[in-house]
Design brief:
binds zinc ion, 34% helix, seven-stranded parallel beta sheet, TIM Barrel, two-stranded antiparallel sheet, alpha/beta
Length: 277
């Protein structure tokens, strides 16, 4: 089966490392079909002062596109496809900026992710690790699910990123996962969006991929296409755990696993995805 990695970062986000050439060389070594570059999007009006300390500023977009251009030049003459993307943050009121970013260049796809939970900050930040934000784990999960639902309903994104990142520090809701996620699963099935199996969770305190097994099974049952992504912040992590992820999907697919080409719902870029037979 063709392997691909659609969620990767660059040093412009200030917490990743590696040159475009190093990423491409690693992709070629692994025999990837697609290397998708999807760094954290810049925020509006942030040329003076950064919104936070883990993303490029909006005036660095040309630099980002040049980085992608270098990767493309390195891959020239090989079968590797290098794709231009962004990992976009979704929160209340961000929609006009996403539309503005979309106009800046011809993106191959946009990933929609939720990091920020209201005024509570970013859930993958160690500040959140130390203090559960709303006072109850159940409430945090509910807030996170509502944000994900709104993201999916916005129709702005092609891929849904790490859809249960709120579990990163190992704190769990007691609710039944399938029932809990039902509104999101329904919205996803209707949206044509692709969901990522993000393998980075295997290396975090939660020690499990995003999203959970039960959610992956339900997604495949409903015909939602799945991509496997590493969320690499360095060349060495590119494509990490892709075989393990494929085996997991194989074990969860209701009628056996198949790989097929699926167009992104917004941009129509064809991607290598997995689904149930
Ligand atoms: Zn990051
Ligand atoms: Zn993310």
């Amino acid at each position: 089966m063709a392997r691909a990695d659609y969620h990767t970062h660059t040093p412009l986000c200030l917490h990743a490392e590696g040159t475009p050439e190093a990423f491409v060389d690693q992709a070629l070594r692994l025999g990837l079909a697609d290397y998708g570059i999807s760094d954290h999007m810049p925020m509006p009006n942030d040329t003076e002062k950064s919104f936070d300390n883990w993303r490029m500023r909006s005036d660095q977009l040309p630099e980002y596109l040049e980085w992608i251009g270098r990767a493309r030049r390195r891959a020239e003459g090989s079968p590797l496809r290098v794709l231009a993307a962004l990992e976009c943050d979704w929160f209340e009121g961000i929609e006009p900026w996403i539309n503005e970013l979309r106009r800046r260049t011809d993106w191959d796809y946009l990933i929609g992710s939720v990091h920020y939970l209201g005024s509570l900050g970013s859930v993958d930040d160690s500040v959140y690790e130390q203090s559960p934000t709303t006072g109850s784990v159940e409430e945090d999960w509910r807030l996170y699910r509502e944000a994900i639902l709104r993201l999916v309903q916005s129709g702005l994104f092609d891929i849904l990123g790490h859809m249960d990142l709120v579990k990163i520090w190992g704190r769990r809701t007691q609710e039944l996962p399938t029932l809990f996620w039902e509104p999101v699963l329904d919205a996803l099935a209707e949206s044509g969006m692709i969901v990522e199996l993000n393998t980075a969770g295997w290396h975090k305190p939660c020690a499990t991929q995003y999203p959970d097994d039960t959610v992956l099974r339900e997604l495949m049952r409903r015909g939602v296409p799945i991509v496997v992504s590493s969320d690499a912040h360095s060349p060495a992590v590119l494509g990490r755990d892709s075989e393990r992820a494929q085996m997991l999907l194989q074990s969860l697919a209701p009628r056996g696993l198949r790989e097929f080409i699926h167009p992104c719902p917004v941009t129509s870029t064809p991607l290598h995805v997995y689904g149930s037979l």
